[in-house]
Amino acid sequence: MNNALTQELSLPPKMDPEAVRIVALGGLGEVGRNMTVFEYHGKILIVDAGVLFPEEEQPGVDLILPDFSYLDDRLDDIVGLVLTHGHEDHIGAVPYLLKRKPDIPILGSKLTIALIEAKLKEHRIKAVTRVVKAGDTDQLGPFDLEFVAVNHSIPDALAVFIRTGAGNILHTGDFKMDQLPLDGRITDLRAFARLGEEGVDLFMTDSTNAEVPGFTALEKDIGPVLENLFGHAERRIIVASFSSHVHRVQQVLDAASAHGRKVALVGRSMVRNMKIAADLGYLHVPQGVLIDIKDVDDLPDDQVVLMCTGSQGEPMAALSRMANRNHRIEVGDGDTVILASSLIPGNENSVFKVINGLMKLGAKVISKADAKVHVSGHASGGELLYCYNIVQPRGVMPVHGEWRHLLANARHAEATGVDPDNIVLADDGWVVDLKDGHAEVVGAVDCNYVFVDGSSVGEITEADLKDRLVLAGEGFVTIFLAVDSQTKTVIAGPEIHARGVAESDDVFDSIIPKVTKAIEEALESGTTDQYQLQQVVRRTVGRWVSSKLRRKPMIVPMVVIV
């Protein structure tokens, strides 16, 4: 396999004018932040621009964006942005990209464009959008595009076929091969076969479930399970799902209608997305089933269903707030909570924390592990094998997944006869050149995490996050003192205050003479620089805290020179 992990990658060479350059700015080695840049004849096409949600070791961070710096001096060369579907990990970063260049044309299906326009409206951005559908072709600069229907956990998902003089690329986006989907829209394998006959030089395939053998279960199997659970529930039912999972919301509405219950949508994104889906005809709401959350308290508990966000344990989402008793909906004994989602890698602890919190409140929690309340939106190993055999690509570049997923996907490709030399395993920022139908890694560009932290974008660094973790885990110590540079003596302090380190500041009394002595010795030796004196204090206190208290807190010295 074409894998550059074993070698140091340098900056890529000057681009061959007859090659297509492919740079993933996110989505490789991670589940989220999907964004791929294609460059050909001096023009740039982007497929998706999504976000990654932070993990526990990134406290305070709201979102993680792709690193747009690669494009900063090439913004005028961008001919368009293709969105494969409307999930946050594929569209969430679009507003931040458009703040750099608002007039980038955005292409996507009817539902995808409606979702991104609603998101951009919140950011006060008026975008140039174009609705495309399966079977449509389009020309963006030197890129000849064709769109193919694929089945996913959100309606109206598309794969994109990119024709260039250097080779043809088929990017699946997220997909699976549900043969009996709720909306009747299957992954168009006939189109895949036709494009395969034309020649697919690089097949960029969804790797999320590549490790899972066999085939993904059918969405239609979820409906009867939900109806059965609804029939046995004695009090309120709370169902948590992704805010864009139209099919699951439809099944909840149908199950509620069958059992005489009313449904209230909880969570701003859930309400917004489902209104859009209903207005466009993707969601069919039974008469009188949907109610406003304000009316929930007027109904008996056995007539209420709450459809909410927070299935991944997001701290500010509705379900997490219910588990923490920080929501207007109070979960109690006899309530049934259904987690209708898969665990995204990295979210396990957050989800288990929410489950434990709900169980403490007396709720019965049902997840995918207990009953068939969710099926994945991503192709399993068997489906990938089918696709490889149907398309028969010359080369393969697994996308959308952690390294273990990418590697499993690559093995499927190899098993179906793809030449290992034509299988490209890449990471974020790695540069892949496709020429004469052959792709290989030629270098790498800077591709860092860009953190959205409150109102700041890209200002928080890894060092800042490390400081936050130290503060959270080890506490901090402040030391104040004043010195006379003439007499070379300490004239005030040291005053030591600690938070999160020990029971009281009294434990530091024994270190005060040592700090005073260290400072006076430094002054005697001719040290008068404020920063150097503060470093003396930091080292002295740090050694003592480490040896006596077995802690490594953040130490903040303040030395005033008079």
The low-confidence parts are none
The quaternary structure here is single chain
Proportion in β-strands: 15-25%
Any idea of the CATH class of the largest domain? Answer: Alpha Beta
Report the structural category.
alpha/beta
Provide the helix percentage: 25-40%
Principal-axis shape equals globular
What is the rounded distance between the termini? 66 Å
Number of helices: 14
Whole-number count of domains: 3
**Which second-level CATH architecture of the largest domain applies?**
4-Layer Sandwich
CATH superfamily of the largest domain, called what?
Answer: Ribonuclease Z/Hydroxyacylglutathione hydrolase-like
List the helices and strands and how they pair.
Blueprint: E1 2-3, E2 20-26, E3 35-40, E4 43-47, E5 63-65, E6 78-82, H1 88-91, H2 94-98, E7 106-108, H3 110-122, E8 129-131, E9 137-140, E10 143-149, E11 158-164, E12 167-171, H4 189-198, E13 202-204, H5 222-232, E14 237-240, H6 246-258, E15 262-266, H7 268-279, E16 290-291, E17 304-308, H8 318-323, E18 336-339, H9 348-360, E19 364-366, H10 381-391, H11 403-415, E20 424-425, E21 430-435, E22 438-444, E23 450-453, E24 456-457, H12 462-474, E25 476-484, E26 489-499, H13 512-524, H14 530-549, E27 554-561
Parallel strand pairs: 1-20, 4-6, 6-7, 7-8, 12-13, 14-17, 14-18, 15-16, 15-17, 18-19, 25-27
Antiparallel strand pairs: 2-3, 2-21, 3-4, 5-23, 9-10, 10-11, 11-12, 21-22, 23-24, 25-26
Helix pairs in contact: 3-7, 5-6, 10-11, 13-14
Descriptive notes:
By secondary structure, this protein is of the alpha/beta class. It has three domains: 20-214 and 376-451, Ribonuclease Z/Hydroxyacylglutathione hydrolase-like (Metallo-beta-lactamase, Chain A, 4-Layer Sandwich), CATH 3.60.15; 219-366, Metallo-hydrolase/oxidoreductase (Rossmann fold), CATH 3.40.50.10710; 462-561, Ubiquitin-like (UB roll) (Roll), CATH 3.10.20.580. Helices cover 28% and strands 23% of the residues. It contains 14 helices and 27 strands. The strands form six sheets. Strands 8-7-6-4-3-2-21-22 form an eight-stranded mixed β-sheet. The protein has a six-stranded parallel β-sheet with strand order 16-15-17-14-18-19, sandwiched between helices. Helix 5 (222-232) packs across helix 6, helix 10 crosses helix 11 and helix 13 runs antiparallel to helix 14 (530-549). The longest helix has 20 residues, at 530-549. The protein is globular, with a radius of gyration of 28 Å. The termini are far apart. The model has no long low-confidence stretch (mean pLDDT 86).
